[in-house]
Each structure stands twice: as structure tokens, then as C-alpha cells.
Design a protein that fits this description.
The chain has eight helices and no strands. It is an all-alpha fold and 139 residues long.
Length: 139
């Protein structure tokens, strides 16, 4: 049995997108593709179609669809998009001398200024010497 690309249809996905039968996906990451395929992208299911696409088939379909719809630079374009949470609010430019709102001070914490706690345990205290056993006691 050949695997369908679209639930309840023998058409291929790109043709259905071009013809408007299926909404064109935006430029999207793999996890977003999986969510899109589950609903708007009409990924075949065993319950409805008797078989489904494998993860490898879906991955190849995602890559080929992104390539066809968004061109050879699609992966670079996708990687260069910032998440909304990473963007600075409009009108607030980060320049030398400004701090993000989440930073209250540039002063080091008390723990970091204490040379004993800042450096952490010395390697001699962390690892027994070759002449000592696992508990730091002589053999």
C-alpha cells in the first residue's frame, strides 16, 4: 500500500496547497510543522486512512514543502527569525550603559565577591590523591 500525503485523498500535499485545498503553511520549524500537519495539513491517520506517514517521510515532506514554497534559503531564513520574546520592545534600544529591565544591578553578589565561595572547592579537596582511598584515607 502506498502512503498518502493527505488524509482521505490521493493528491500530493504541494498540489493541494497550490490549488487552495489546504492552507499554505508559513515558514516553520519542525515542531510547528507537526502541529500544522495534524490539523490544517491533514496528515493521514491509521484510524481514517489505514496508514500514516512515518517520521522520516514527514521530515522529507516538511523539507521539500519549505523548499518549494520558500526557496533554497528557507532554512537560513528560518534560523535568522527571532522569537518575539527575544526582541527588544519598540523604542527601547540596548546600548552601552543601559540595562534590561530584569537586571537590577551590575554589582557582583556577595557570594561572588567572597574568594572562598567564588572559587569553589579546590581540586585537592574534591579528588583523593593517588595514595588515598575513595574516602580520602590512606590505603
Amino acid at each position: 500500500m502506498t502512503s498518502r500525503q493527505i488524509s482521505s485523498s490521493d493528491r500530493n500535499l504541494l498540489d493541494a496547497i497550490r490549488d487552495g485545498e489546504i492552507q499554505q503553511p508559513s515558514l516553520m520549524h519542525w515542531n510547528d510543522w507537526q502541529r500544522w500537519r495534524k490539523y490544517a495539513g491533514r496528515r493521514p491517520t491509521i484510524a481514517v486512512d489505514g496508514s500514516n506517514t512515518s517520521t522520516a517521510q514527514e521530515s522529507a515532506l516538511w523539507k521539500s514543502t519549505m523548499l518549494e514554497l520558500y526557496g533554497t534559503e528557507w532554512a537560513i531564513d528560518l534560523a535568522s527569525h527571532k522569537d518575539v520574546t527575544e526582541e527588544e520592545p519598540p523604542g527601547v534600544l540596548m546600548t552601552a550603559g543601559t540595562l534590561p529591565a530584569s537586571v537590577t544591578s551590575l554589582e557582583p553578589s556577595a557570594a561572588a565577591s567572597d574568594p572562598v565561595t567564588a572559587a569553589g572547592p579546590s581540586p585537592a579537596r574534591s579528588f583523593p590523591s593517588p595514595s588515598q582511598g575513595a574516602r580520602g584515607k590512606p590505603w
